[in-house]
Amino acid sequence: MPEPDLCELSVPNRIGFRFPEVDVPCAELPKGLVREHLPLPELYELDVIRRYTRLSQLNHAIDTGYYPLGSCTMKYNPKINEEMARLAGFAAVHPLQPVQSVQGCLALMYELQEWLKEIGGFAGVTLQPAAGAQGELTGILIIRAYHKDRGELQRTKILIPDSAHGTNPATSAMSGMTVVEIKSDERGNTDLDSLRKQCDETLAGIMITNPNTLGLFDENIEEVIRLVHEAGGLVYGDGANMNALLGIVRPGDLGIDVLHFNLHKTFSTPHGGGGPGSGPVGVCDKLVDYLPSPIVTITQEGDEETPPVYGFYTPPKSIGRVKSFHGHFGMMVRAYTYMLMHGKEGLRKVSEHAVLNANYLRARLRNVYHIPYDRICMHEFVAEGRWEDAPEVRALDISKRLMDFGFHPPTNYFPLIVHEALMIEPTETESKQTLDAFADALIRIAEEARTNPDLLKSAPHHTPVGRVDEVKAARDLILACGVSVEEDT
Ligand SMILES: *Cc1c(COP(=O)(O)O)cnc(C)c1O
Question: What CATH number does residue 96 fall under?
Fold first, then answer.
């Protein structure tokens, strides 16, 4: 049965809310601001609750099913994170409150900065960026400010490997840089010859993801960093894939100068419709003066009896603010809770298990699906969703069919250097039973591709919404109450 829309359910004069008693003097609103008619549906609270609860159940979510969406690190979001984030002292504060009244919040931010410095091997961290992509923008602006400060205005070229996430070239271009693509070699590493050709006096830096989006640790990483530094460039690390490295490799120790973390991936804060992200940026010693302001700092050391006093400070050459107030504070509470719950040893185990799970799945699937760069992987791997003896089947069909088994599909068609890419990131929070069920489903689908390809082409069959016309969905967006948005051309 199709879901009725709220306007259809509306009955005049039904009321589903109750305002609290007025505890301040009433004032007249200016005439121009008063609306006589608001076309909102009139419903009971129960109607609204039922509708949104039903709608939420139509969605696939990490709390309802397995979600091996490559590069997105869809790990379980522990519920204790939510409990902590809802504590009134964290949830009910205002960002304009005087610092003396929010010392606990500042202490948490300070400690989170310290943990991220330790995890990444960095000298300074900003918590401001709203997500990974904004972290990238922040990092590239820092690199630009650094070169500018040294009078090297000609350094405007950012190198980006061809396996990179789409945000990498986008944020570099937004910062006014020229993007030059670097090839990957046959083992999936950065191609050193391709890199050497670009190492000149216009080089601002390289933006590199390690492990890269093939899920592979770049075997050339030290040489890449050496070459870029030798040419006067800086190295930006896309740290979205830190889930493979916690407690094992510190990017700063490798020589990476600036890197963003994705709290909503590695540190279990919800994402993908589940809440805002958070993309803190860590920098090496020579870049700390350029960090966005404000940074949380200790303004007065504590001792055995009195806790330290926290405040804000502006780095001397700061690129300025990149986000209103202090970033997505609720995400910081969740990430910090996650870190404390695991402890140092626990975080290392997270990465060890993430890598183990990915290699287990890769080993179970490698004789059924072609894996073009088939070597020990890190937290994820990329398979091809095509076979010569099933010519009509594409990666998209495999993904749609997976939904019939109750699994969220892997990432499709990315990275671009693998044909019909299926990018699978199991994460450490899944049991062997779940991994086996997922592998079994993929193996069965590979059989179906040969024996009954139509089953794949017409999938999904058991989801609330069947196969959608993706082109039409993008062109004829239906956002609300049956109103379609005409494409603005
Ligand atoms: C997710 C991701 C990003 C971007 O992060 P957002 O928080 O989605 O902006 C960048 N690079 C890689 C490799 C990613 O997986």
Answer: 3.40.640.10
Q: Is the pLDDT of residue 105 over 90?
A: yes
Residue 250 covered by a domain: yes
Q: Which strand (E) or helix (H) includes residue 412?
A: strand 411-412
Ligand 1: lining residues by beta carbon, under 6 Å: 71, 131-133, 165, 167, 209, 213, 238, 240-241, 262, 277, 279
DSSP string over 361-398: HHHHHTTTS--SS-S--SS-EEEE---TTSTT--HHHH
Lowest mean pLDDT among 10-24, 98-112, 213-227, 323-337: 10-24
Q: Write out the two tokens for 469.
A: 């016309």
Ligand 1 pocket test: pick from 165, 209, 382 the residue with the most ligand atoms within 8 Å of its Cβ: 165
- Residue 340 C-beta-side C-alpha neighbours within 13 Å: 12
- Mutation to probe ligand 1, out of 73, 238, 379, 382 (largest number of atoms < 8 A from CB): 238
CA-nearest residue for atom 15, ligand 1, is: 71
Cα–Cα distance for residue pair 347/266, rounded to 1 Å: 10
Convert the pLDDT of each residue in 252-292 to its tens digit: 999 999 999 999 999 999 987 767 899 999 999 999 999 99
pTM greater than 0.85 = yes
Question: What's the number of domains the chain is made of?
Answer: 1
Please give the pLDDT value at position 487. 45
Residue nearest atom 3 in ligand 1 by C-alpha distance: 132
Q: Which atom of ligand 1 is nearest to the CA of 277?
A: 7
Sequence-distant (≥ 6) Cβ neighbours of residue 326 within 8 angstroms: 95, 109, 127, 128, 294
Burial class, 437, CB count within 10 angstroms (exposed 0-12 / middle 13-18 / buried 19+) = middle
Residue 324 lies in domain: 79-340
Residue 332 in any domain: the answer is yes
Substitution candidate for ligand 1 out of 167, 236, 260 with most atoms within 8 A of CB:
167
Q: Closest ligand 1 atom, CA of 264?
A: 7
Residues 105 and 93: beta-carbon distance below 8 Å:
yes
Residue 481 has pLDDT above 70, yes or no: no
* Cα–Cα distances in angstroms (integers) from residue 118 to residues 125, 210, 485, in the given order: 10, 18, 48
Q: Whose CA is nearest to atom 14 of ligand 1?
A: 240
